[in-house]
Amino acid sequence: MSSRRAQAASLGDIPPARSRHQGRRSAVALADGLAVVGTADGDVLAFDIASDGPPTRRWRHETEGDPSVVAAVPFDGGVAVGERSARGQVRCHDADGGVRWSYDTRTDLGAAQKKTRFLLPFVAALAADGDRLYAAARRYERRTDADGDDVRHFESAVYAFRPDGSVAWTYPTDASPIALSVRNDRVAVAYNRCPGDHQHGLVVLDAADGSPRWMWDPGTDGQRRVGDVALLDEGAVLSSHGDYCGYRLNESGSERWRVPLATPTDVAGDTVYAYPNHVRATDGGAVFVTGNTYPEEGRQTDARHPNEHTAVGVSLDGERRWSAPVGGFASGLGAAGDLLAVPGAQHFRDRDADAHALRLFDIADGAVGTLETDGVVTAAAVDGDCAVAVEEPVIYHDDGRERGAYRLHRLAATSGVADPHR
């Protein structure tokens, strides 16, 4: 497995990340020889990555207000982006950076309860097929219920946008959407929290009109439900936050198999678990990626779940093939075909800067390459033989040293082997 440096370009200056996760604030997509980066200050930058030298900036779109761009996907010859901002905007850029259309999800979700980052309207996921762009957006707030208790509440909607920006349909709920997957004529929506009337962690919608085809739920206690979903030609693979397992479902929603990933485990007298946050599935198999260790009691623990921060490869028959560390909390995945890029951000308990990296995996065979970084890697994308990653600077509270910079890395990944010196 290779472990070397890549070509890089500056993305400017941002406040460094800290020990605690602050949520996604960057995004990147690859489209027609460009790497398009959504930044923490709300601007969108496009870099030419076709040459052998460092990425060269092609254009920059400056954004008003104080947003961060947290999602990006190629769409209709351009790139669509989604914000965490007061407006919660979904926007489509032409290949030259011009804004083709925009839509403010605040119109449907309502204004933020306070001007606090986690209370702002948030475009949690984007996905596209040949005809439409799909967006999942949510707004979170705290409410007092009839018993006087402080409770979580979400306003959310899934949108289907036509190429001209008009809305074909919406699917609103009072749950928290976290991921989308589109395949053939279906749109799958994963809900990671269901504190209200909507009690289904997975909903599969008809792509034409947004009507529900089937639903699934882990059936566990509490609000936690599903972390991610990947549609197959028939059925789906998903990561369950309810019981910390991976599932393959048939087209009707019936269970085909279940794989324990980071279920509660006794470590030196402390029972701990970790959420499986991401999944990628193709005809070649599936990969699940787990997150941070948490104790069953309280929030602090010295124990580490043996399967935290781990990528697990599974065949489509449910057989475990391989596992490998990913170094820290992954805020998302980059993927194309059977190649998977996992950005490793903070390990907030151990804060091990030596683990900062982008790691590349083949779905069937496991680890194939590593790009080591000084800062934390927070976003990645893959297209053909090219992978890109966004690095952010970080300062850990018990160290005080600023590591890394805000920059875009480009590396080649050809025939299952990562080659940073393309």
From TrEMBL:
One Pfam assignment: PQQ_2
SUPFAM superfamilies named among the record's database cross-references: Quinoprotein alcohol dehydrogenase-like (SSF50998)
Domain (Pyrrolo-quinoline quinone repeat): residue spans on this chain: 41-216
InterPro entries listed in its UniProt record: PQQ_b-propeller_rpt, PQQ_rpt_dom, Quinoprotein_ADH-like_sf, WD40/YVTN_repeat-like_dom_sf
Stored Gene3D superfamilies: YVTN repeat-like/Quinoprotein amine dehydrogenase
Disordered: region residues: 1-25
PANTHER family: CELL SURFACE PROTEIN (PTHR34512), OUTER MEMBRANE PROTEIN ASSEMBLY FACTOR BAMB (PTHR34512:SF30)
UniProt-recorded name of the protein: PQQ-binding-like beta-propeller repeat protein
